[in-house]
């Protein structure tokens, strides 16, 4: 696979990774807050199925809704976004390492 294709796929996957990371963080923060999905949905005026989808990495969340959900968990949305950036950066670094390894193995075999 060409380096350009790999890079394009990585860029396209970035938005999906961010959705999944936000979902994982929402679920973990909800659990730490001791809230069920239903209770969090009630407290944040959010549809329970939408909240469930978010926690599973499906769908996008607006900043307004993110703020509502975070406040319902007594959590600052800045914390969630900071954690998301850290996790995304770690994944990006791993992809760069993987690309570098891929290039080196191609040079050896080519």
Outline the secondary-structure elements.
Blueprint: H1 3-32, H2 37-44, H3 48-55, H4 63-72, H5 77-109
Helix pairs in contact: 1-5, 2-4
Tag the structure with descriptive keywords.
110 residues, mainly alpha, 434 Repressor (Amino-terminal Domain), elongated
What does this entry look like structurally?
By secondary structure, this protein is mostly helical. It has one domain (3-109): 434 Repressor (Amino-terminal Domain). It contains five helices and no strands. Helix 1 (3-32) packs antiparallel against helix 5 (77-109). The longest helix is centred in the last third of the chain and has 33 residues, at 77-109. 11% of the residues are buried.
Helix content: over 70%
Tally of individual helices = 5
Secondary structural class? mainly alpha
**CATH class descriptor name:** Mainly Alpha
Q: What would CATH call the homologous superfamily?
A: lambda repressor-like DNA-binding domains
Which residues sit in consecutive blocks of at least 5 with pLDDT less than 50?
none
How would you spell out the order of helices and strands?
HHHHH
Which descriptor suits the 3D outline? elongated
Radius of gyration: 18 Å
Report the CATH topology name. 434 Repressor (Amino-terminal Domain)
The domain count comes to 1
How would you characterize the largest beta sheet? none
> So, CATH architecture?
Orthogonal Bundle
Mean pLDDT: 83
**End-to-end CA span:** 14 Å
Q: Bin the strand percentage.
A: under 5%
Total count of strands: 0
């Amino acid at each position: 696979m060409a380096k350009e294709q790999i890079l394009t796929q990585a860029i396209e996957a970035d938005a999906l990774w961010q959705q999944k990371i936000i979902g994982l963080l929402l679920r973990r923060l909800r659990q730490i807050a001791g809230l069920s999905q239903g209770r969090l949905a009630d407290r944040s005026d959010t549809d329970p199925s939408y909240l469930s989808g978010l926690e599973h990495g499906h769908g996008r969340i607006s900043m307004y809704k993110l703020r509502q959900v975070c406040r319902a968990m007594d959590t600052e949305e800045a914390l969630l976004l900071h954690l998301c950036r850290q996790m995304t950066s770690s994944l990006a670094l791993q992809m760069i390492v993987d690309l570098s390894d891929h290039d080196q193995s191609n040079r050896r075999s080519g």
